[in-house]
Amino acid sequence: MMDGLRELYQEVILDHGKRPRNLREIENTEHQAKGYNPLCGDRVTVFVVLKDGRIADVSFQGDGCAISTASASMMTETLKGKTIDEAEATFGKFHDLVTGKVPPGEGTEGLGKLAVFAGVQEFPIRVKCATLAWHTLRAALEKRPEAVSTE
């Protein structure tokens, strides 16, 4: 990856890590779940409001590393207005990207700003940080009562 591009990616992740979007609780929603990464201590709660089969609102609370927080922040921005199927498809593409199932520079179609997480595949220990909010979102959509763990 070109150095300039890597720097831009780091800036976007740091921006969302320091100033996360949609960092708030949505009260009285039946779609919420807690997630925990015991390896590094990241904790997240994801709140989802569904309306007519679409994600009308989505937010998160918690604390974690810059990658975990940025991923949750960008996830909420990306998924607002999407159907559950579109959200699942986006998660699949994102997961393939960060786990290295697609070669660097490929597999970013339809991911928009989430493509900045491509560099995570170089640091396998950080994949769990990047995907925690996504696994927690899935649990919220499925109304799973138990906390999600990355282990």
Helix content: 25-40%
N-to-C series of helices and strands: HEEEHHHE
Q: What are the segments in which pLDDT stays under 50 over at least 5 consecutive residues?
A: none
CATH architecture: Alpha-Beta Complex
Q: Regarding CATH, which class?
A: Alpha Beta
CATH topology group? Sufe protein. Chain: A
| Count of structural domains | 1
Radius of gyration: 14 Å
| Total helical segments | 4
- The counted number of beta strands is 4
Largest sheet, spatial ordering of strands: 3-2-1-4
Strand content: 15-25%
In angstroms, what separates the terminal alpha carbons?
Answer: 30 Å
Notes on the structure:
The chain is 40% helix and 19% strand. It is of the alpha+beta class. It has one domain: Sufe protein. Chain: A, CATH 3.90.1010.10. The protein has a 4-stranded mixed beta sheet, with helices on one face. A hairpin with a 2-residue loop joins strand 2 and strand 3 (54-63). The protein starts with a helix and ends with a strand. The model has no long low-confidence stretch (mean pLDDT 92).
Features:
151 residues; alpha+beta; Sufe protein. Chain: A; 4 helices; 40% helix
Compile the SSE list and pairings.
Blueprint: H1 3-18, E1 31-37, E2 42-51, E3 54-63, H2 66-79, H3 84-98, H4 127-141, E4 148-149
Parallel strand pairs: 1-4
Antiparallel strand pairs: 1-2, 2-3
Helix pairs in contact: 1-2, 2-4, 3-4
